[in-house]
Design brief:
Blueprint lengths: L2 H7 L2 E2 L6 E3 L2 H10 L6 E7 L3 E8 L2 E8 L4 E3 L8 H12 L2 E3 L15 E2 L7 E2 L17 E6 L11 E7 L2 E8 L7 H5 L4 H9 L6 H15 L6 H29 L3 H22 L8 E2 L2 E2 L7 H25 L1 H7 L7 H6 L4 H5 L8 H5 L18 H24 L16 E7 L4 E9 L2 E8 L2 H11 L8 H8 L3 H5 L1
Parallel strand pairs: 2-5, 6-7
Antiparallel strand pairs: 1-2, 3-4, 4-5, 8-9, 10-11, 11-12, 13-14, 15-16, 16-17
């Protein structure tokens, strides 16, 4: 049997919109072993006090699966799904569950500074003592030297540690160590209503506040069998596409700036600022923080909002073609971007990479298309797709997505339905999964409600799968090109630090 067949053969427990398959320990082990020869995509792995949960994608189908923790452990998935390793380390730090047979048992979120170990377990224990220095994987060879960078950086940037092993100027290994932005989000959500906990989802990764808020709201709405009003769906789409455009403009500017083209970066930054100012006029907040809530949106768009947004879009359209031409025709820029930081299509597929990172390496996934959600099901979304997998491809995918988002925004603003913008969620005891396509890629949220309050939750930012791929893409490049490759991936530090 394939891994997917083993999962489907297991009994289910209610979870909306996809029932969760509960596998006995032997079946979970068989499923883990079957992953060696199965293309089943692992999207997320998390836990609660008594179970470990996984989210898989099998073609167009989504398969949630779980198994009980026995003797403090569960069979690891990382031997055949390398993307599981970071999740398994986080599960060990937060819940104390061991991944039996896992490929990496080093701490991840817990840097030895917490007052207790396994804080989300039923019986957290007092921390043992002084923090141990972080352990990094060795590299063998002649003339290998290490370059430690961070977690404090020289600019306005989130904290993260990068440990380079280099031979001369060539990177032979990069290890990323995060966790410095751990906020206790999962514990903060527990015991609160979805409406109250939405503030934590909105702040998981501030540049994706709309997308994470939509995914969280959709999880709560799935669990409570609630469908927001049509106008709320449309306004969520408007906000999401504005967020996508603003972030892509910022990322394109950051990429060309690290390739020493500040003039082009200045124009991208100018347009991003214009979009943010129009957003503030439309929704009262430049980032639209807390604008999306379970049951709809917090407030309607202002009367001056649509004209302000359309004016900003028209300005981008008027110059977008020229900016793309400059990027393509400037030989010094092309020399820096093309063939730098290449991610293979095979590795992108193995890690189920979504968003710009995946679509620049031949992976066509886009949650707006499949499984889809309102308002995109009637908008004929056309994702950009390239196969080169380098910095240049990631830049060009972003440029194409800006054009597509402008088209979608015009369609949404031209046909905003009338009616209310929110409804109240009923009290329920149920599970739900929500999803949204953010500017980085696929975002997933899982919630379990007990009497209308959150008993357990897990938000999965796309960066969980992108950071390990960055470690691979930078190998063989010179150290000086790391900022360029890093900007082209733009992984969220906060989004995976929970």
């Amino acid at each position: 049997m394939t891994a997917a067949e083993i999962i489907r053969a297991a009994p289910t427990t209610p979870c909306h919109p996809w029932p969760r398959h509960v596998l006995p320990g032997q079946s979970w082990q068989a499923m883990a072993d079957a992953l060696a020869a199965d293309p089943l995509a692992l999207l997320a792995l998390w836990a609660d006090a008594g179970h470990v949960h996984a989210l898989f994608r099998d073609g167009a189908d989504i398969l949630p699966a779980s198994t009980a923790i026995v003797g403090g452990a569960y069979p690891a998935l990382s031997p055949h799904r390398p993307a599981a390793a970071w999740f398994e380390r986080a599960i060990r730090d937060l819940w104390g569950h061991q991944a039996a047979g896992g490929t990496d048992s080093r701490p991840w979120l817990d840097h030895g500074k917490w007052g207790q170990t396994a804080p989300l377990s039923t019986r957290p224990a007092a921390a043992s003592g002084a923090a141990e220095p972080p352990e990094f994987l060795p590299v063998e060879g002649e003339d290998i030297h290490q370059i430690p960078v961070g977690p404090v950086h020289a600019g306005i940037i989130e904290p993260g540690h990068f440990r380079f092993h280099a031979q001369g100027e060539t990177v032979v290994r990069l290890e990323v160590r995060l966790g410095y932005l751990h906020k206790g989000t999962l514990a903060l959500m527990r015991g609160k209503s979805p409406r109250a906990a939405a503030r934590f989802a909105a702040r998981l990764s501030g540049d994706s506040t709309v997308a994470h808020s939509i995914a969280f709201a959709r999880a709560a709405e799935a669990a409570t069998a609630t469908d927001p009003p049509p106008r709320a769906h449309a306004l969520r789409g408007v906000m999401a596409e504005i967020e996508r455009i603003a972030n892509h403009l910022g990322d394109c500017g950051a990429i060309v700036n690290d390739a020493a083209f500040p003039m082009l970066q200045a124009r991208f930054t100018w347009h991003r600022e214009a979009v943010l100012r129009a957003t503030a006029r439309a929704f009262g907040n430049r980032l639209m923080m807390d604008a999306v809530i379970p049951g709809g949106v917090a407030a309607d768009i202002t009367a001056e909002g649509p004209p302000a947004i359309l004016a900003a879009l028209a300005a981008i359209e008027a110059e977008h073609g020229e900016l793309a031409r400059l990027a393509e025709d400037t030989s010094s820029l092309v020399d820096r971007l093309v063939s730098t930081g290449t991610l293979s299509a095979a590795l992108a597929a193995r890690f189920a990479a979504g968003g710009v990172v995946g679509r620049a390496a031949g992976q066509p996934g886009d949650l707006r298309v499949a499984p889809g959600y309102p308002p995109y099901r009637t908008l004929d979304v056309r994702p950009a797709l390239l196969t080169e997998g380098d910095v240049d491809a990631r830049f060009r995918v972003r440029m194409a997505e800006i054009t597509e988002s402008i088209r979608l925004l015009r369609a949404l603003l031209a046909s905003l339905p009338d009616g209310p913008v929110s409804i109240t969620l009923p009290m329920a005891s149920a599970e739900g999964i929500g999803w949204a396509e953010g500017f980085r890629g696929d975002i997933w949220h899982w919630l379990r409600l007990d009497g209308g309050l959150i008993a357990a939750a897990f938000p999965r930012d796309p960066s969980w799968l992108h950071w390990p791929l960055l470690e691979s893409a930078v190998r063989g490049n010179i150290v000086a090109d790391f900022p360029l490759v890093n900007k082209s991936f733009n992984g969220s530090y906060s989004g995976v630090d929970l």
